[in-house]
């Protein structure tokens, strides 16, 4: 992890950290004593949109848990092309593969929005997992789920033609309400506001972006921006 981000990592009071971790799907079923132990290991980080959390090839020395915002996992080619592999939001973890096998990071992790994460060092996390069989099983299930998802993506690329792949991508956009944490009604209301400003055009079954500059400014401004 970049040194400037390490300096931002800090310990939260145990009571507050325990409350937050208790709401995280991976850690919420831990016994109180185990949760208290985990609280002694976890560090809290607040990141601005675009901040690098880790880069491909970095040592896999930390596990990350998303508390708020989204984190983008991507890879880049030598000629500058970029492919987004996944987006992780609140309640999800990332970085576990490199932590568990001790190898280098396989992709870049970037703060896709302003976000908060917890960081747990590998030297403390691995002994903790060994002492918590139920937690170990959760990570096994998580890795299996991600392997299945990766297999589905490979299948689409290899076996589907362009129309099929495009249709699958568009169907994935139906999950946008879950990604931003809002109801469909709230999203539709917001889209109508943007349509009135000529930032987007709403068509039957489609959203056409008209003003990428305004949307980019809004995304970079964060939660305090005028919608």
Question: What do these coordinates show?
Answer:
There is one protein chain. With 227 residues, this protein is of the alpha+beta class. The protein has ten helices and ten strands. A four-stranded antiparallel beta sheet has the order 1-8-3-6. Strands 2-7-4-5 form a four-stranded antiparallel beta sheet, with no helix packed on it.
Shape: globular
Radius of gyration: 19 Å
Strand content: 15-25%
Query: What is the rounded distance between the termini?
Result: 33 Å
Number of helices: 10
Could you say which structural class the secondary elements and strand pairing correspond to?
alpha+beta
* Major β-sheet annotation: 4 strands, antiparallel
Q: Tell how many strands the DSSP assignment holds.
A: 10
What is the helical fraction, as a range of percent?
Answer: 40-55%
Mean of all residue-level pLDDT scores? 79
Written as H for each helix and E for each strand, in order along the chain, the element string is HHHEEEEEEHEEHHHHHEEH
Strand order of the largest sheet: 1-8-3-6
What are the salient characteristics of this protein?
four-stranded antiparallel beta sheet, 22% strand, 227 residues, alpha+beta, 10 helices
């Amino acid at each position: 992890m970049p040194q400037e981000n390490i300096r931002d990592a800090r310990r939260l009071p145990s009571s507050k950290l325990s409350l937050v971790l208790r709401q995280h799907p991976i850690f919420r079923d831990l016994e109180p004593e185990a949760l208290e132990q985990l609280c002694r290991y976890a560090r809290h980080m607040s990141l601005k949109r675009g901040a690098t959390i880790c880069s491909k090839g970095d040592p896999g020395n930390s596990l990350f848990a998303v508390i708020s915002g989204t984190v983008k996992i991507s890879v880049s080619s030598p000629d500058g092309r970029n492919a987004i592999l996944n987006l992780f939001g609140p309640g999800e973890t990332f970085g576990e593969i490199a932590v568990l096998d001790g190898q280098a990071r396989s992709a870049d992790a970037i703060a896709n929005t302003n976000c908060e994460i917890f960081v747990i060092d590998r030297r403390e996390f691995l002994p903790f997992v060994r002492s918590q069989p139920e937690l170990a099983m959760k990570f096994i299930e998580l890795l299996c789920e991600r392997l299945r998802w990766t297999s589905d993506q490979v299948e689409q690329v290899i076996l589907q033609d362009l129309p099929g792949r495009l249709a699958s991508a568009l169907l994935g956009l139906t999950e946008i309400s879950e990604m931003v944490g809002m109801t469909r009604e709230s999203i539709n209301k917001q889209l109508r506001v943007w349509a009135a400003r000529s930032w987007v055009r709403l068509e039957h079954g489609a959203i056409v972006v008209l003003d990428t500059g305004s949307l980019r400014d809004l995304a970079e401004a964060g939660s305090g921006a005028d919608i």
